[in-house]
Design goal:
Helix content: 25-40%
Number of helices: 11
Largest sheet: 8 strands, mixed, barrel
Strand order of the largest sheet: 8-9-11-12-13-14-15-16
Distance between the termini: 158 Å
């Protein structure tokens, strides 16, 4: 006989067994799904690792981590067989402007140097100090030899003398220096085969017609002058020294013969210009000299220029010995501009050594006419000049002491 409890316990055992079996089968199915999923994922990662070994690149993001839009990049990878490096170029640059090569080394480069490496710059420009052109090119390519800077060649004295692009000057201390001829200053265009000289008097002809004017440079040192005789001998104009500043004392004074000379010269029908011998050491003194000239010209009407003459004193010291090129240029500019402001024509007087070696030529020669003092048949001075003292002092008819002729290629009386 079975007890009631035993019958009830037996009836409940079968459902429990079914439940355990069902749960077990469910668990096995889940394990099988997980296993198959892991196997498939492992195969995919193995394929990717194989691609990575063939082409080094940063590890791509997992498919599950792709943001919106990144799937397009993944498609480009697969369809076009692109490498990661083909797109991942920003890693080449660090935040400080350093250039990172494929070997991982950094070369520091400033903004200015980056600009010098631009294609707009010259081929020989370097990307950065110490890096030769082509040093940042891709591996396996050699730098272009033509991009290397070419050493500059310093011309020898023989080459400079033969080139025609240089002029030699002798400075105050006796040293010789080659000066390169500037393209910013007009060069003279005279044909010196058209010059004619008779009894020391020079004339310039074009197409058989005389197109020059003859003058004489005079001062108290010239002694008594017969201006009527000068006029009859073919002289057209005179350049009279108006005054000067003492090279030791610094005092400004009128030439002792100026008033007498200008009065008689104009009475004889000669055109007149004046010169002033400057020893100014400041721009203020140059203004003082210009005012002195202007005040002493008030009673007269002159037709030829006012000449600024600054020179060293031969075999003696002078006030201007202490001046630099810039100082002398500023002084000359101050004097000439003040005279020109009052309506007078101006000329800068000097020899080749002074005009090319003692002042800053480009600041003066391109703007003011030049009265060149260079005796000889053909001057070495390369730039345009309007007047030329072509000979040393000599005996001239009508002048007590020796004086020097000057030829002018411009008739200033008609300007």
């Amino acid at each position: 006989m079975r007890l009631p409890d035993e019958q009830e316990e037996r009836g409940m055992g079968i459902p429990v067994i079914y439940t355990i079996v069902a749960v077990s089968v469910f668990i096995l199915i889940i394990l099988a799904v997980v296993f198959m999923s892991n196997t498939r994922q492992s195969g995919r990662e193995a394929a990717k690792n194989k691609d990575v070994e063939a082409t080094p690149s940063p590890t791509p993001a997992k498919e599950g981590e792709l943001a919106e839009g990144e799937a397009d990049i993944e498609t480009l990878y697969r369809e076009n067989k692109l490498r990661a490096e083909d797109l991942d170029f920003w890693d080449m640059y660090s935040g400080s402007g350093a250039v990172t090569g494929e070997d991982g080394e950094e070369n520091q480069e400033t903004d200015e140097e980056q600009a010098s490496a631009s294609p707009d710059k010259s081929p020989g420009a370097s990307a950065s100090p110490g890096i030769s052109p082509g040093a940042l090119s891709s591996p396996g390519t050699s730098p272009d030899p033509s991009a290397s800077p070419t050493p500059t060649h310093e011309p020898t004295e023989e080459e400079m003398a033969a080139s025609g692009d240089y002029v030699q000057v002798i400075l105050r201390d006796g040293t010789k220096e080659w000066i390169e001829i500037s393209e910013d200053i007009p060069r003279y265009t005279y044909d010196f085969t058209n010059l004619r000289i008779s009894d020391g008097k020079m004339a310039y002809y074009q197409d058989g017609e005389k197109v020059s004017w003859l003058g004489v440079d005079l001062s108290k040192n010239s002694g008594n002058v017969d201006f009527e005789a000068l006029k009859e001998s073919g002289v057209d104009f005179v350049m009279l020294r108006l005054g000067g500043r003492g090279y030791e004392t610094g005092l400004v004074s009128l030439d002792e013969s100026f008033v007498n000379n200008i009065t008689k010269a104009q009475s004889a029908g000669l055109e007149v210009g004046v010169t002033f011998f400057s020893q100014a050491v400041t721009a203020r003194e140059a203004e003082e000299e210009a005012e002195f000239v202007l005040n002493n010209l008030i009673p007269y009407r002159i037709s030829f220029p006012v000449a600024f003459d600054m020179e060293y004193i031969v075999n003696d010291e002078s006030r201007i010995d202490i001046l630099t090129k810039k100082d002398k240029t500023e002084i000359a500019e101050t004097f000439l501009s003040r005279i020109e402001l009052e309506g007078y024509r101006c000329v800068l007087y000097g020899g080749k050594n002074w005009l090319l070696g003692e002042i800053e030529s480009e600041d003066l020669l391109a703007y003011y006419d030049v009265w060149l003092n260079e005796p000889g048949s053909v001057p070495e001075f390369p730039y345009q000049f309007k007047m030329w003292k072509y000979d040393t002092s000599q005996k001239i008819e009508g002048v007590e002491n020796e004086a020097a002729y000057t030829i002018s290629f411009v008739n200033y009386s008609r300007k």
